[in-house]
Amino acid sequence: MTNLTTVSDASKLLDVSVDTIRRWEKKGLIKARRDEKNYRVFDMEELRRAHDKYVGREAQHSRFVVLKNTRVKKYSSIELFAGAGGLALGMENAGIKHNLLVEIDKNAASTLKLNRPDWKVICSDVRQYSFEGLTADIVTGGFPCQAFSFAGNQLGFEDARGTLFYELARCINEVRPKIAVGENVRGLLAHDNGRTLKAMLSIFDELGYRVAYKVLRAQYFDVPQKRERLVIVAVRKDLDFPILFPKERDYTVSMREALQDVPPSQGQEYPKKKHDVLKLIPPGGYWRDLPIELQKEYMGGSYFLGGGKTGMARRLAWDEPSLTLTCSPAQKQTERCHPEETRPLNIREYARIQTFPDDWQFDGSVSSQYKQIGNAVPVNLGFHIGQCLIAMLSGKADYSMMDELPSYDEYKSGQLELL
After folding, report:
1. Angle formed by the axes of helices 7-14 and 18-26, to 10°?
2. pTM for the predicted model, two decimal places
3. In order of start, what are the domains of the chain with their CATH numbers?
4. Active-site residues: which are they?
5. Phi/psi of residue 33, each to 5°?
């Protein structure tokens, strides 16, 4: 049975301050839960692991691994907006074969072909591609974010024309897979006060799919990175199996574990002036660790604005997961400086943090490679999603490792809220 405890009791048992435990939670290193009285509680085993890692500094076996099993690939997929292959590789590692991948960016499509010449990769604008006559058990797509709104009306499938979400829905309608998966940033939850997501769920319903969604936090799925993705899973209504999502693990993987023996590679460099500033920042620190006058000089007008601006002049910490990787490690607002060396993370470090294997090569310029990696779904997160899809299709779910969420029918009827 899980040993749950309050923050004050945990503080006494571990001989650390309450503030320390709350700081671990705020950083996403441990998780709080709610007990039957709605009090915040923590799992004691998870706390002990965090204590050993962040206080005891005991030598630990590295948890970093690119997850893969030897499952025979019985189920097939079609993926839109495939990018550099993070989701596709993760799902392949789980045991899913790919019938087709569509990607418009020529460098990302070349990356897919370079690493998997046996995959059918189409470099094309998905709007120009017909899926009529194609079959697959699963259709997936991390449709790009767009500034569109359904204006709060209960609009349907045809009303979504002109958006890339419509193209995902069109593919689903033409292929009629057993399961469809959409993936996006957490911000979609709040877009247009939630009306955009509600309209999307309504379109899945109109197409004949029951649907559920959940925000997955990558740092709890064997990914050394704090990254949140909204995942929507839809099941064809004639099929009677539950919608599953992976359960969060009770550990995280640190930068130190992830970057151990990372191969050398190309990467960006800082100009001398920026290098001289960032060399003063300690691991895990940011601009507030600079002398006050240098803070004002480096920040300029931003110094006097509100907000923490914690991504500026930010050096990552060895003993925590990385902050979310962006399309470039040297953007002023979202700096991703190496924990020890005064330089941006390089290509292979970026790839490790996204859990790409070291033999996965990226085509194109250095800036294109950073963009491909930064935009990818972490491979290990894709693996966990793929495991759930296989469990749903095969009817062999290990419920200790998965969460079952209710259907859109229940959500639509007002019986509950999914989030």
Report:
1. 110
2. 0.85
3. 4-56 (1.10.1660.10), 75-251+378-413 (3.40.50.150), 260-375 (3.90.120)
4. 145
5. -125, 175
